[in-house]
Write a structure and sequence with these properties.
3-stranded mixed sheet; about 30% strand; 6 helices
Amino acid sequence: MNPTPVIGVLALQGDVREHLIALAAADAVARPVRRPEELAEVDGLVVPGGESTTISKLATLFGLMEPLRERIAAGLPVYGTCAGLIMLADKILDPRSGQETFGGIDMIVRRNAFGRQNESFEAAVTVAGIDGPVEGVFIRAPWVESVGAEVEVLAEHEGHVVAVRQGRALATSFHPELTGDHRVHSLFVDMVRAER
């Protein structure tokens, strides 16, 4: 049996604490990552929700943009929720001026696709690889407009792609860390454990 994986949560913005709790509940050692030297010590990384333009700016400011791109390109297992999904996209349909991503998933995403903050909602989502529906919390959520040939679509909601996987990268439009249901985090922890 592989030892317990160490999984970081990019702690620049967003619901970092909730992801740390969910990862710990899914049998990982979870720690915040704010600096390149902390990134170097983890077996996998969660990119939480928040505001993708702010995450992009802060990652550059903290010297994490290039190290993150390099580690993801080299196969670091990574999981992005909501804004994290945007940050893992190779292309944004409607980027803000100067907005950059880490990349890692061959997909085109649309920011705030499900509407503004006051149009946030919860919905049961069937996710491939997880038994029974997951309660998805959608807050100013993006959706995936299109995916490349290597990308596996794991879930859709109302005809829109809301969960994908490409190799060691996983992304959801919704926030499973806010529900107390840790099955998506367990799926990611299993992905990380399989790579060690």
